[in-house]
Amino acid sequence: MSAANFLKKLLDGAEVDWIPMGDERVGTFTRGGGLQKKDFVESGVGCIHYGQIYMHYGTYTHTTKSFVSNEFAQKARMASPGDVVIATTSENDEDVCKAVAWLGDEKIAISSDACFYSHKLNPKFVSYFFQSEQFQKQKIPYITGTKVRRVNADGLAKILIPIPCPGDPERSMAIQGEIVRILDSFTELTAELTAELTQRKKQYNHYRDQLLTFDEDEVEWKTLGDVAKFRRGTAITKKQTKKGKIPVVANGPISTYSHGQHNRDGETVVVARSGAYAGYVSYWNQPIFLTDAFSVHPASNLLLPKFVFYLLQNKQRQLHDMKKGAGVPHVRVKEVEQYGIPIPSLTEQANIVAILDKFDTLTTSISEGLPREIELREKQYAYYRDQLLSFRKPDAEPA
């Protein structure tokens, strides 16, 4: 059954009113205040800082990440169980007004740059509504500020929220609860997949460490400079590029723009040379135009390029630590050339690469594996969320 048909059957002819969120029939917004990170203590009364809503919390939570003392809580703005806490400032329009429903048993302190919504609705229903397309469209007129974007409590109070069966609170809560049940199932599935992905990444790192660890007397060791050639990229600006689809690879994990020519082809191991990503290792198996970086070309009779990539990737932190220089830091070729590497047989290298490739596909590929599955589930969730919370469109925009 489609989301639209399910919603129609669920409502079964019941009316839906779009009511301002600040209407006394629905709820009230209260500004947080006073709480700063310096007020955190090891244990005590729970609290939510507005920045944590972006970094730590999802749609709802039963526990808080941080605490304040009992003395501080007595003078703080406190949200009650069932309230929805909203971050009212952000660096961008998309994120501002991210919300989390507080489902714990005690009151909690709320920081400034946040507010909390006390209401007569299902807390999760409200929190899901804050994620919906309908809410996102309605908040735009109330966003103010330049560098820091803000929506105040007065603006939020004017936004319309759909209330099914407003004249029958019991049935209204039942409908809200059924919508929440469906959206929860998508949220939980995504959370399970994300947890599995995190575990697989840990496994991947463990196996990579094991597969790329050799005793000194187990295989021959050489410095990378003895068994590979290093080639610097060619300086080019975006204005100098010609129309084309060849990635320009510089000092980061992704290509910066495209070009009509290439200066590397086939398997290429790249080390970023300067900037914040200096030392970052990437692998390419296609034509590229290499600029602010250098490429590593191992002797084909001794080393496989992909094996060298995995060796360097496994030492990513050490490569980053090689950065030197004030202002824009650099990684120097001479230092990377001195890096010692093991040289097992080409057959063993190929076996190691095959194993690590499988793990890499599972944990990082956006077209295969768990990341792809998570992406699909998130899109499916967003579709059902917007469909289930669409109801009948309000006749007029909020004032």
UniProtKB/TrEMBL annotation:
The keyword DNA-binding belongs to this UniProt entry's keyword annotation: yes
GO biological-process terms attached to the record: DNA restriction-modification system
Entries under InterPro entries matching the protein: Restrct_endonuc_typeI_TRD, Restrct_endonuc_typeI_TRD_sf, Type-I_RE_S_subunit
Molecular function via GO: DNA binding; endonuclease activity
CDD domains: RMtype1_S_Ara36733I_TRD1-CR1_like, RMtype1_S_MgeORF438P-TRD-CR_like
Alphabetical list of Pfam families matching this protein: Methylase_S (PF01420)
Residues of the Type I restriction modification DNA specificity domain: 118-198, 218-375
Keywords assigned: DNA-binding, Endonuclease, Hydrolase, Nuclease, Restriction system
Membership in a protein family: Belongs to the type-I restriction system S methylase family.
PANTHER family: TYPE I RESTRICTION ENZYME ECOKI SPECIFICITY SUBUNIT (PTHR43140:SF1), TYPE-1 RESTRICTION ENZYME ECOKI SPECIFICITY PROTEIN (PTHR43140)
Name under which the protein is recorded: Restriction endonuclease subunit S
Protein source organism: Asaia bogorensis NBRC 16594
Origin organism lineage: Bacteria, Pseudomonadati, Pseudomonadota, Alphaproteobacteria, Acetobacterales
